[in-house]
Amino acid sequence: MAYDESLAARLRTAFGRTQVVEKHMFGGLAMMVRGHMCCGIVSDKLMVRVGPELYEAALKMKHAQPMTFTGKPMKGMLYVTPEGCNTVPKIVGWLKLALIFNATLPAK
């Protein structure tokens, strides 16, 4: 499964000066911040790790869907439909949620 290269370019722009390590995983692209997966791309969807505390509120946001990569919803992770990540400003909003959770994790 390939991932959307134009979404990857927008995501890189949205990160700005934040230090990110890109890893190819399961046919997609994962963005690692401070040694933890922060977000990524699966096919044409943005995958965002918001953590358990922000999960329910984030799922109520427009364009959010449960992440069901394994066949079951993965609490703390969600997908954003292509319409919700088709511009850098939209991605920045999702990225803020991911970085809030990422900051709660110990650096690796």
Instruction: Write down the secondary-structure element order.
Output: HEEEEHEEH
Extract low-pLDDT stretches. none
- Per DSSP, the total helix count is 3
Q: For this entry, what is the oligomeric state of its chains?
A: single chain
Distance between the termini: 29 Å
Report the portion of residues in β strands: 25-35%
User: What's the total number of strands?
Assistant: 6
- Going by helix content, strand content and strand pairing, the class is alpha+beta
* Strand arrangement in the largest pleated sheet: 1-2-3-4-6-5
Which shape, going by the Cα principal axes?
globular
Mean of the pLDDT scores?
Answer: 95
For the sheet with most strands, the description reads: 6 strands, antiparallel
Helix share of residues?
A: 25-40%
Task: Tell me the radius of gyration.
Answer: 12 Å
Description:
This protein has 108 residues and is of the alpha+beta class. Helix content is 32%, strand content 28%. The protein has 3 helices and 6 strands. The protein has a 6-stranded antiparallel sheet with strand order 1-2-3-4-6-5, with helices on one face. Strand 2 (28-33) and strand 3 form a beta hairpin. Helix 1 packs across helix 3. The protein is globular, with a radius of gyration of 12 Å. The N and C termini lie far apart (29 Å). The mean pLDDT is 95.
